[in-house]
Amino acid sequence: MKTVLMAAFEPFEGELVNASWEAVSQLHERMICGAHVVAKQLPCVFGESLQVLNDAMDELEPELVIVVGQANGRPNITVERVAINIDDARIPDNAGRQPIDERIVADGPAAYFATLPIKAIVEGIREADIPAAVSQTAGTFVCNHVLYGLLHRQAQQGGRGGFIHVPYLPQQAVRHPGAASMPLQTVVLALEMALSIALTVEEDKKLEGGATQ
Predict the structure, then answer these.
(1) Domain encompassing residue 12
(2) What is the model's pTM?
(3) I need a surface site. Which of 7, 15, 33, 172 has the fewest CB within 10 A?
(4) Which position among 22, 145, 152, 165 bears the catalytic label?
(5) Number of independent structural domains in the chain
(6) Could you tell me which residue, 205 or 61, shows the higher pLDDT?
């Protein structure tokens, strides 16, 4: 039986919840397209987050790994295209660490592309009337740190993986006037669709998904 590892983060930057974990935890032990989904929470800490993910991959040997993070202020479900080899933290992580201009892997390449069918995923989510878009940057905080580490490992050992950012939940957005949000069950549905597409589509669609800025 195939296993899919879905990882998401603990709350950070003073939030009481993290939208990514609230959604991903609802998919734990689900069967999607014949694959058993295992959810794992990651600490929002440089280094430790990647170690927890690597330990889970060692244990589960998953067919597919999708990490989900919370993108404060983004209005869409955003599927990440690329991870870059840099930690440059605007704020401290949950352990108080704040690396500046540090490479994630000393001798690693500048960037890796995600191996998910990112445009097919975006198209499928949009067809369900859920806002979605390709993202050209996972930032330079812990989310990008984990995505780069995941793709670096898979470049050496094989496997497919990527990263999806989700908006605030409404109960978070009320503390940030003007911030976009998305209901929890809508996020869960979008992630279910993303998993189904990632498990069944091998070659991505050639669709517009770029950015002018």
Answers:
(1) 2-200
(2) 0.96
(3) 33
(4) 165
(5) 1
(6) 61
